[in-house]
Automatic annotation (TrEMBL):
It is found in: Cell membrane. This is ABC transporter permease. Keywords: Cell membrane, Membrane, Transmembrane, Transmembrane helix. One of its GO terms (cellular component) is plasma membrane. The keyword Transferase does not apply. Its main location: membrane. The chain crosses the membrane at residues 6-27, 34-55, 61-83, 90-109, 142-159, 189-208, 214-233, 240-258, 264-284. InterPro entries: ABC_transp_permease (IPR001851). It is a multi-pass membrane protein.
């Protein structure tokens, strides 16, 4: 048992990293007033882009860059449609998600039998040998620590920098920001691309590190969970980190229970992360005033200069 819990905690950090990186990207989108329902499709396209790059180059970092590029390109398409053409954000995001699922499945056909080379094992010298804490905290992939650093950096950016204040102003009142001379559409477009790149990084992490192979639909709803996580976290980066790790823990708990031979239907255990997501959203929705107090005021609303 003494060895089981550190390993379970380490697996929780690994699983939670995917949700944290994707949710931070979506938080940037929503802080600018844009709802991105295409995250699942972006992550799937990024997953196949990252996996294919890793197969052909042998470099995980190039794979991450490819995933971020794929996510950014899809996000740019979303931004062009909803920001400049004023299409419905919800319908456009759903269409992008469906496109990403189909496109990734088509492109990934020839990669379904491919395997990546032996994965590297990372550890922090000295700290990794600490009993209990070492295996749990200091033998993680570098992107786990990057996710934590991103959380801190985004918190500083949003609440301590002028650019972050402008971004939040655009999300709260684009009309006022425009009146002050800020290019609202351009700011929103940049925010959407940055958010899409982070979703792409999360998708590439799934296929290159978390489950180093390609399977159609392998993100398994993580994009939707990340979307729910932004609401769960009330659009605050630190709470995104906490929530991501909680959802990651639920995901790993199902595997742990299955491994321990718990006499519960495997289908029920597999559904635990999604049941947890629904339960959290139900609990949050009971306090609509609290949601309205924290939600960006222009979230999901189009902005047309001069209208």
């Amino acid at each position: 048992m003494s060895e089981t819990w550190p390993l379970l905690f380490a697996a929780t950090l690994n699983a939670g990293t995917i949700l944290v990186i994707a949710a931070l990207g979506l938080l940037i989108n929503e802080r600018a007033g844009i709802v991105n329902l295409g995250a699942e499709g972006m992550m799937l396209v990024a997953a196949i882009a990252g996996f294919a790059t890793a197969v052909h180059t042998g470099s995980d970092w190039l794979a991450f860059a490819a995933g971020m590029g794929a996510g950014a390109v899809m996000a740019a398409a979303l931004g062009w449609l909803v920001i400049w053409l004023n299409t419905n954000q919800y319908a456009t995001g759903l269409a992008l998600s469906l496109f990403g699922a189909g496109f990734s499945a088509f492109v990934g056909i020839k990669y379904s039998q491919e395997k990546l080379s032996e994965r590297m094992h990372f550890e922090i010298p000295g700290l990794a040998d600490i009993p209990i804490l070492g295996p749990a905290l200091f033998r993680q992939h570098p992107l786990v620590y990057v996710a934590i650093a991103l959380t801190v950096a985004l918190s500083w950016f949003l609440y301590r920098s002028r650019a972050g204040l402008v971004l939040r102003a655009v999300g709260e009142s684009p009309e006022s920001a425009h009146a002050l001379g800020y290019p609202v559409r351009r700011i929103r477009f940049i925010a959407v691309i940055v958010g899409g790149a982070l979703c792409g990084l999360a998708g590439a992490y799934v296929s290159v590190v978390y489950t180093p192979l390609w399977v159609e639909g392998m993100t398994a709803g993580k994009g939707w969970i990340a979307l729910a996580l932004t609401t769960f976290a009330t659009w605050r980066p630190a709470r995104v980190l906490l929530g991501g790790m909680l959802f990651g823990g639920v995901t790993m708990l199902q595997f742990h229970l299955q491994g321990e031979g718990v006499q519960v239907a495997s289908q029920l255990l597999t559904s635990l992360p999604y049941l947890a997501t629904v339960a959290v959203l139900v609990l949050i929705s009971r306090n609509a005033a609290w949601i309205r107090a924290n939600m960006p005021a222009s979230l999901g609303k189009p902005f047309v200069p001069g209208s």
